Amino acid sequence: MLLSIKNISKRYKNGIDALNDVSLDVEKGEFISIIGPSGSGKSTLLRSINKMIDVTSGSIYFENHDITNMKKKEIKNIRREMGMIFQNYNLVERLTAIENVLHGQLGYKSTFSSIFGIYTKKEKKEAFNLLEKVNMTKYAYQKCSELSGGQKQRIGIARAIMQNPKLLLCDEPIASLDPKSSENIMDYLKKIVTEMKITCIINLHQVDIAKKYSTRIIALNKGKKVFDGKVENLTDKIIEDVYKNEENE
Ligand SMILES: Nc1ncnc2c1ncn2[C@@H]1O[C@H](COP(=O)(O)OP(=O)(O)OP(=O)(O)O)[C@@H](O)[C@H]1O
Q1: Pocket probe mutation, ligand 1, options 44, 49, 88, max atoms within 8 Å of Cβ
Q2: How far is the CA of 19 from the centre of ligand 1 (A)?
Q3: Residue 31 and residue 201: Cα distance in Å, rounded?
Q4: Residues in domain ABC transporter (predicted)?
Q5: Where residue 110 falls among pLDDT bands split at 50, 70, 90?
Q6: Residue 38 in contact with ligand 1 by CB distance below 6 A
Q7: How confident is the model at residue 71 (pLDDT cuts 50, 70, 90)?
Q8: By CB atoms within 10 Å of each CB, which of 61, 193, 200, 232 scores lowest?
Q9: Nearest-CA neighbor of 128 among 106, 150, 152, 96?
Q10: Are residues 210 and 173 in contact, defined by beta-carbon separation less than 8 angstroms?
Q11: CATH number for the 30-47+81-248 domain, one of 2.30.42.10, 3.10.560.10, 1.20.1250.20, 3.40.50.300?
């Protein structure tokens, strides 16, 4: 088991219950989409997994280690194992595409090497290989501020994979993209994680995309898990129920 979440709840300081007794087990190699209306707790769930926030109760196990109450130093080690892809890309805009991909290695470097951007030949080769996988080699030396959204997200994928993660967490990776670029990004993502056998959990607004690419879908509503199963079991009726109260949110 790669990840095991047992009965987690999250109450923010303002009293909002963002997660309510959520449990799930993730096996290696799964491609899981998390769907649900705005405010249902999707981002909170991902942020709990990579320890950006602490849960209020319950436990999280990563590779059978209890990571629920980890200290800061240990969290750094865990984060190396978990790549992140963001809606707003989180690239360093003034740096080139290849420099951003190399940044994926920062978690493994000494402070000295990271400050001076010192990378080995092997790391540079690996970064170029990844640029090739997302078909961005010809933009290697272009500043990220000059790239389109879809191109930026391709760099975001390469950077996350550069980190050599066991788990890839994607928080609305296509929410800022048009439908064509969205499919393009999902194609690259799916191809790379399948090829490299990386487990993937992805927050998505688009149910059709979730159905097309996932091996399993989890639906949240008001912080509760209301569906967890194979794509073929996610009926239109269930989808309707999951999103029923969205207009009231
Ligand atoms: N840092 C925070 N402090 C207080 N409340 C928060 C915080 N982050 C999220 N919330 C609240 O927790 C609930 C769940 O939010 P979350 O962002 O996890 O939902 P989501 O499903 O990812 O939504 P969206 O699809 O709109 O991104 C919402 O009611 C939100 O307002």
Answers
A1: 44
A2: 9
A3: 6
A4: 3-247
A5: low
A6: yes
A7: confident
A8: 232
A9: 96
A10: no
A11: 3.40.50.300
